[in-house]
Sequence to fold (250 residues):
Amino acid sequence: MSVRSGRRRKRPLSLTTLLRRAGPGLLDLVFPPHCLLCDQPGTPLCGDCCQNFPRVTPPICQLCGQPIDVPGFCRSCRRTPLAIDGIRSVFLFEGGVRKAIHRLKYDDRHSLAVTLAQSMADHWRSNPMSSDLLAPVPLHPVRQRERGYNHADLLARALGDMISLPVVTDGFKRVRHTQPQASLNAADRRDNVQGAFAYQSRLNNTISGRRIVVVDDVCTTGSTLEACSLALKAAGASAVWGFTLACAVR
Fold:
């Protein structure tokens, strides 16, 4: 008689995924890249499609960066201000942007990170943020093993290279395995990530007195970025901002 262990059986990796993990150069050799939106050859996401992405334009909330009708603060931030110095985003999370982010996040499309980070770098140069370090939102080790990579880390490293800022690579961790935020409302999102992050460096505290910009793909309510800010400030960061590729308009 066989006994089931109850452990979840892992899905076999596809040939494309194996090639991506072997190296982007090998994947491009076997499957030459095409724009995922218009199918133009030579690039995973072409410049024309990026130019057509819907951008976040003023006026925006001074705290969470959401588009609003008049300058100042949005209703949510007036009612319950986020515990972060500010959040800024490049695009609205819709259309081609949503598709590109989902491909990066769930389909092992690592090469998209450089193209998407270029849009973040262009925005940064026009709207600079005071920062000493970049810090990607960390995944919990369980989810990191399941996915094989952290999309926020890919974006932060590519962005850091482009704007010449170092990336926090040690100590900043997700210490609690949380429910995916996408399935929760605003209040539950905040509760879900409360205390989920910590800075636990075994080396020198590299963030004490430093200005940190936390990098992620999408800002919806700002709860995750706020939780990151609380953890980093508890470890001595002097200021924490959030910078995301896109924001979901509430």
The radius of gyration is 19 Å. The longest helix spans residues 112-126. The longest strand covers residues 211-219. Residues 1-9 have pLDDT under 50 and may be disordered.
